[in-house]
């Protein structure tokens, strides 16, 4: 991996287009991605970076081009990986998000019923109860880290429920989620060896749950589903680990950061917070708008299966491309005043954050429900979740997230 | 104008006058029929305009196309007469069509 050269803070607009590598983690940590993508959308919407940190790659930055690519799984493959770094040959993690049809479809269908609307309806009461307990335990009038006490806690409890994972060990899930997406910049692990060792610990832990549940009929949790389904019960250990990582990261990092992002956005746009106070019925639409605004996964990678033209550029077979959802969600031709949070935005639901096509986010309804219930319960308790310090952003171009957001709660 | 009846999960009927040539999804959205999200705007790539065609009408809608089949196939709440309404073009032959809406879109 090449070392990133620091750009000066003000030269984004004069830098040679060829030199721009939008996948550099530092532009996300320092919150400078807006300028980078605004320039690419205007001047090079389908942009080629020859010297990317993970090798040469194309960037799609406009809404329509991203949607086109996402819709055409027959032209753009997910096989192997959905991040820019190529898979590690000696440590492959096969998971269905990084597969093409038909295997993708077969494996996804095994686990998707757990997050289908009918099952979620049964889960809503549990989620609401947990949200209430978490919110009622928070200090009022004292500064605390919203990420830790709310965003992580809520999503981790939810994930523990879906896995029927020992509740007292649930923070292991948070750790494994962070470790799975860690790289040398994230500061989460010291070395690749440590990363693999921790992921093996994850595999061992889940293997025990698998053994307990295999052959035991119809458990409704994700592990029982995988262990007892004809398609998945003979998965290799690496494939089991890969799919675990997918479900853990998918159910954890994403909603976690939309929970934090919503608080941040409402503080940055206080007029929107007023709208919410005056009209809590806006919550469902606000949830879609928060997911657009935050875009918890900044991009997905594809590999061209054949020579294909996108936005007037020829992408050759075998070349890799990043569909920058974060940029498409700021495309002014689709979203007016796209940088701003507007909780009553009429087309908020058309955001790209869940992707489109066969890889569309499987847990989207669960994510929306968690955010909706959370905001309903927040509005019943607090007049203001006030951000009192700068957020600490994660150094990653993939997970667009936060590790710290200091807040003070004001009671109703 | 072909008349289309949308029946929501609680049995409430919405009868709309659709325009020939538009999609069934657009006919629902334009007439304020609740229960259809259509997040992708009618491009067969989100599956949130799922309907279940009433008995006797399924064959007349033509059945799902290849892309639609791929999206429907991933929905655990699919039924034998499930369709994505953005992929059904309203024609005079569909005058009187009845479709049921799921409780939730997925």
**Largest sheet features of chain B:** 5 strands, mixed
Radius of gyration of chain B: 12 Å
* Domain count of chain A: 1
Distance N terminus to C terminus of chain B?
30 Å
Shape of chain A from CA axes?
globular
CATH topology of chain A: Cytochrome p450
Describe the structure using short key phrases.
heterodimer, A: 412 residues, alpha+beta, Cytochrome p450, three-stranded antiparallel beta sheet, B: 106 residues, Ubiquitin-like (UB roll), 5 strands, 17% helix
Question: How would you characterize this protein structure?
Answer:
The complex is a heterodimer of chains A (412) and B (106). Chain A has helices at residues 25-29, 33-43, 63-71, 103-111, 117-136, 146-163, 171-180, 192-213, 222-228, 237-250, 253-268, 270-278, 283-294, 325-328, 364-381; strands spanning 46-49, 57-60, 76-77, 144-145, 299-304, 308-310, 313-315, 320-324, 382-387, 392-393, 402-404, 406-411. Chain A has a single domain (17-411), classed as Cytochrome p450, CATH 1.10.630. In chain A, helix 11 (253-268) crosses helix 15 (364-381). Chain A is built from 15 helices and twelve strands. Chain A is 45% helix and 11% strand. By secondary structure, chain A is an alpha+beta fold. In chain A, the strands form four sheets. In chain A, strands 1-2-8-5-3 form a five-stranded mixed sheet. A three-stranded antiparallel sheet of chain A has the order 4-12-9. In chain A, strands 6-7 form a two-stranded antiparallel sheet. Chain B has 106 residues and is of the alpha+beta class. Chain B has one domain: Ubiquitin-like (UB roll). Chain B is built from three helices and five strands; from the N terminus they run E-E-H-E-H-H-E-E. A five-stranded mixed sheet of chain B has the order 2-1-5-3-4, covered by helices on one side. Chain B is globular and about 35 Å long. In chain B, 41% of the residues are buried. The interface between A and B is medium-sized, with 22 and 21 residues.
């Amino acid at each position: 991996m090449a070392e990133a050269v620091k750009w000066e803070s003000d030269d984004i607009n004069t830098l040679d287009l060829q030199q721009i590598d939008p996948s550099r983690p530092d532009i996300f940590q320092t919150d400078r991605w807006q300028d980078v993508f605004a320039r690419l959308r205007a001047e090079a919407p389908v942009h080629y970076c020859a010297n990317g940190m993970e090798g040469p790659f194309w960037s799609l930055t406009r809404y329509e081009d991203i949607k086109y690519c996402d819709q055409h799984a027959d032209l753009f493959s997910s096989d192997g990986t959905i991040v820019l770094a190529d898979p590690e040959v000696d440590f492959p993690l096969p998971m269905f998000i990084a597969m093409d049809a038909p295997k993708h479809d077969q494996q996804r269908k095994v686990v998707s019923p757990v997050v289908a609307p009918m099952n979620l309806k049964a889960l809503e009461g549990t989620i609401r109860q947990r949200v209430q307990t978490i919110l009622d335990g928070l200090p009022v009038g004292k500064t605390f880290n919203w990420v830790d006490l709310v965003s992580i806690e809520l999503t981790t409890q939810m994930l523990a429920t879906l896995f029927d994972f020992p509740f007292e060990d649930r923070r292991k899930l948070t750790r494994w989620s962070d470790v799975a997406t860690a790289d040398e910049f994230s500061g989460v692990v010291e070395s690749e060896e440590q990363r693999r060792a921790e992921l093996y610990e994850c595999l061992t832990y889940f293997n025990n749950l698998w053994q307990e549940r295999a052959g035991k009929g119809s458990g409704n949790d994700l592990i029982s589903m995988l262990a007892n389904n004809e398609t998945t019960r003979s998965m290799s250990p690496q494939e089991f680990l890969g799919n675990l990582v997918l479900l853990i990261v998918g159910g954890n990092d994403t909603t976690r950061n939309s929970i934090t992002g919503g608080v941040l956005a409402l503080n940055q746009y206080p007029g929107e917070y007023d709208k919410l106070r005056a009209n809590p019925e806006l919550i469902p639409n606000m949830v879609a708008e928060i997911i657009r605004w935050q875009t918890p996964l900044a991009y997905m990678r594809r590999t061209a299966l054949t020579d294909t033209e996108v936005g007037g550029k020829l992408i050759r077979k075998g070349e890799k491309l990043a569909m920058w959802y974060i940029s498409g969600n700021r495309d002014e031709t689709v979203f007016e005043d796209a940088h701003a949070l507007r909780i009553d935005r009429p087309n908020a639901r058309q955001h790209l954050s869940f992707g489109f096509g066969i890889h569309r986010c499987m847990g989207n309804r669960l994510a929306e429900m968690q955010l909706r219930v959370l905001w309903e319960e927040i509005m019943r308790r607090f007049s203001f979740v006030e951000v009192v310090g700068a957020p600490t952003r994660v150094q990653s171009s993939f997970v667009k997230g936060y590790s710290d957001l200091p807040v003070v709660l004001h009671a109703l | 104008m072909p008349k289309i009846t949308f029946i929501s999960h609680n049995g409430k009927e919405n009868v709309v006058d659709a325009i020939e040539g538009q999609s069934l999804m657009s006919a629902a959205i334009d007439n304020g029929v609740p229960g259809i999200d259509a997040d992708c705007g009618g491009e067969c790539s989100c599956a949130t305009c799922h309907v279940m065609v009433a008995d006797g009408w399924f064959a007349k809608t033509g059945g799902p196309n290849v892309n639609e089949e791929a999206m429907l196939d991933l929905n655990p709440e699919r039924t034998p007469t499930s369709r994505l309404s953005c992929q059904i073009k309203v024609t005079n032959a569909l005058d009187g069509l009845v479709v049921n809406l799921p409780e939730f879109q997925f």
